[in-house]
Amino acid sequence: MGNVMELELYQYKDHVTQTIQSIYDRIIELYKLEVQINLDDELEIPELKVEPCPTDLQNYVFYLWLIRVLQQLEKVLNDVIAFYNDSGFVDEDGYGDTAFIHLYIPRTEIFYTNDYLRRIDNDLKLANDMVDQLFEYAKQFED
Fold first, then answer.
1. pTM of the prediction?
2. 118-138: per-residue pLDDT in tens?
3. CB-CB contact of 66 with 112 (8 Å)
4. Are 53 and 13 a contacting pair, CB within 8 Å?
5. Is 103:127 a contact under the CB 8 Å cutoff?
6. Which residues neighbour 140 within 8 Å (Cβ) at sequence distance 6 or greater?
């Protein structure tokens, strides 16, 4: 994707939705990988879908939606981190469980500034990096 700061609001909404859905799809693959490695046929893999944005306008409704989807992303990530920690899929060179992730959730900042967008984009990168890290931990246990 090009420079996030150059996107119009409707494009940014689509960018956030598509990126989070892609992360969710990868998280589902993490659960499936654990099932494959541990032969865990009792695991119920969650269905993960991004809540649709109810507006195309740059307004308070969009702002509240963005907060909700980022909070949900943080929860979903921490759920899979906890699950992987419980499954023993952690960094074998480290000294403990994978730490939970804390995303930047906008609260009072001026809406849709370059700094605001950069921080949201950093959240999405951090989430993708965490999923990559969890895949690496699981792959240590593959045959």
1. 0.88
2. 888 999 999 999 999 999 999
3. no
4. yes
5. yes
6. 89, 92
